[in-house]
TrEMBL record:
Main subcellular location: nucleus
Protein location: Nucleus
Domain spans labelled RRM: 576-654, 673-713
Biased composition (Basic and acidic residues): 456-481, 543-552
Name of the protein in question: SART3 protein
GO cellular component, one term: nucleus
Alphabetically ordered keywords of this record: mRNA processing, mRNA splicing, Nucleus, Repeat, RNA-binding
Record bears the keyword Repressor: no
Alphabetized CDD domains for the sequence: RRM1_SART3 (cd12391)
Biased composition (Acidic residues): 499-512
Signal peptide: none
Amino acid sequence: EIWLDWLKDEIKMASESSEREKVYELFERAVKDYICPEIWLEYAQYSIGGIGQEGGIERVRCVFERALTAVGLHVTKGAALWEAYREFENALLETAQPAPGSVPSAEQQQMLCSQLEKIHTLFRRQLGIPLLDMEASYAEYEEWSEDPIPETTIKNYKKALQQLEKCKPYEEALLGAETPKLAEYQAYIDFEMKAGDPARIQLIYERALAENCLVPDLWARYNQYLDRQLKVKELVLSAHDRAVRNCPWTVGLWIRYLLAMERHRVDHGTISEMFEKALNAGFIQATDYVEIWQAYLDYLRRRVDFTQDSSKELEELRSAFARAVEYLKQEVEERFSESGDPSCTIMQNWARVEARLCNNMQKARELWDNIMTKGNAKYANMWLEYYNLERAHGDTQHCRKALHRAVQCTSDYPEHVCEVLLTLERIEGTLEDWDAAVQKTENRLARVNEQRAKAAEKEAALAKQEEEKAEQRKQARAEKKASKKAKKTRIGDKRKADDDEEGEWGQEEEGAEQPSKRHKGDGDGMLPEEDMEVETGLFGRSVPEKPDHPANQKETASTSRKDIPKVFHDSSKDKVTVFVSNLSYSMAQPEVKLKELFESCGEVAQIRPVFSNRGTFRGYCYVEFKEETAAAQALGLDRQVVEGRPMFVSPCVDKNKNPDFKVFRYSTTLEKHKLFISGLPFSCTKEELEEVCKAHGTVKDIRLVTNRAGKPK
């Protein structure tokens, strides 16, 4: 779509022939970028406009032929190009017809026959290809042709029809699928791969990539097919180039591109330039840089003729190895806080090249010394790798020295290196060498076993401590459970005493809403344990967890209940009422404070704050409005900070009648215009975040998630 928009803009402005050439160049870029029937059709139609120029007709035919090669096999859209090509040739046929009543010359007759044969050929070619609605094309040919359709054409047509029937399920699957249709395209690709027609395989891959140009695996599979099967230089390199342009973050695509360029003997300067582009592509992990460097170093190594003592290519290889080590140390480590090559594989390969191909063991030893100083001396496999190199290309003295150091330094598998040292001395050592090796290995293994025993003792002690802690926690839970059970029993007795005096205190409204005691959150702001109360209804009777002495119980209840007015809620007014919670317990005059806050939403009929038996505000209340619209608008104040705490505003719903009712203000589906950010410091402010984000676009809103106490999470 972007290419077509650009092309149409350029076509509008192109009036002179020189400007037409620029449009042709743009079309060439477009058709090489994606195999797209719409662009090819536009290209052909535009070229018809230049038919009056020298060689115009041949140019149009050339474009049409290239278009048919590229997308003429497209099952659903290919027919449009065939029809456009035939219409063009038919128009030429009309111009070649002699004037009515005149006798055509031999030359005109020959031209007419030639033009008719071109149209016959187009029909026959088209009918041999499985295209949608090909029956109509066959009927059109029958009607147009004055001669019977040849048997060969009919046979090819029937064969194409059978092939179309096999393709139809895959085309229908694509038609009914939602973007990106990867599974459907993969099934279609597998079908075409079994059939084995290279042109059809290439086309279905290109169709899939036009809709999934940012899927690296699809590019990788396509390029692998081109590398192994088609092996056409221009086609292969073009596909690789498009792959790295669409998915530059995928190191595997760059490596395949470098290999393809080497395979097709692209000049060294171009390959080096492409490698530099890869380094600047912005890979997402440190190991990617190790892989791309290794691929480039392999390429440079294959260029060197090691039969010569010195060459320009060898010096370039050594220089590249040194640059790779420095690049990983400086650039990559600075960006990712790691080099991506902890085992120093690049330096190991450099050492192998120096030892095996350049016979330069001195340089190889220097490199291995550098490797060991980078924290690798504790690993047995690293020492054995160096030992094997010395064994193959060095001498026994250096082998023995390496193994003695390995016995001393290895901490993961010391037994293994000890065994290798003893094996070396058994085969090549003197008695003195054997004795020294036995003594060294015995001393080392004794120390190792002693360290392991201490570590095992420490681990056992820790395990025992954990068991004791677990037992203590289990015991504490059991005691807590028993304590709760005892309290429930005492509270039950107290309720029974209260119920006996119901006439004295008056009936409470039944079915009142029971609010959740706490919102989902961290639980900050709960009452201290001594102030916690057990609720029997939303604003029903509440009693302290620590009951008064039985003798004073009735008197205390009488005093407190007469002082604190009961708060009732009429469930018929749910639609004009909101439930407000998580307010500060220390809020003075909550009615006044909240009325000021909620009057911006509409006329407030009544505010009913809830107080405990001791007369303290319990942090929640009912706000009743005159109009439903005001209540709906009030929900927008949810999470507004009031006296340092986020105020929760929710619809007023009887949870006894709607036990599953939950309020969650935010969408739980994918929201492409929102980002979730974590790992922020607790001191981060909304303004600081906005400053960072606005550099990338217009910021609509930023919400800092907080707990019940208003502190950021």
